[in-house]
Amino acid sequence: MKMTRDAEYDLVHEMEASLMELMSSSLKQRLTAEPVRFVYQRDMPDAMVEMLRDKLTISRYDSIIPGGRYHNFKDFIGFPNVGKANLVNKPLPRLRHIWFDKFRNGFDAIRERDVLL
């Protein structure tokens, strides 16, 4: 399941606070803000969905969306190797850029000038 909470992010106060402070404040609001969207696994029992909806104080007016097992793109990153070589991407060779060869590390090269890769 995945729940999204409402949080305000007011750019009007940008002059009064740094971007880091604004983002920090907005993230803190998300911990206690009202839920606005609830995505759950489609085959979850109805009784469990209702219990979660009740405990998380999700009203019927909020977006309650049945979905698949995976709700975040990052869920696709850690799929296990199931032993079939044709399902695994071969590592790509490292590409070199001559500008980077002039510096001790990539950060120094980029600090000197923008590099289009």
UniProtKB/TrEMBL annotation:
GO terms for cellular component: polyphosphate kinase complex. One of its GO terms (biological process) is polyphosphate biosynthetic process. Gene3D superfamilies: Polyphosphate kinase middle domain. It holds the Pfam family PP_kinase. The keyword Nucleus does not apply. Signal peptide: none annotated. InterPro entries: PP_kinase, PP_kinase_middle, PP_kinase_middle_dom_sf. SUPFAM superfamilies: PHP14-like (SSF143724). Residues 1-79 form the Polyphosphate kinase middle domain. GO terms for molecular function: polyphosphate kinase activity. Its EC number is 2.7.4.1. It is an enzyme of class 2 (transferase). Keywords: Kinase, Transferase. PANTHER family: POLYPHOSPHATE KINASE. This is Polyphosphate kinase. It comes from Enterobacter cancerogenus.
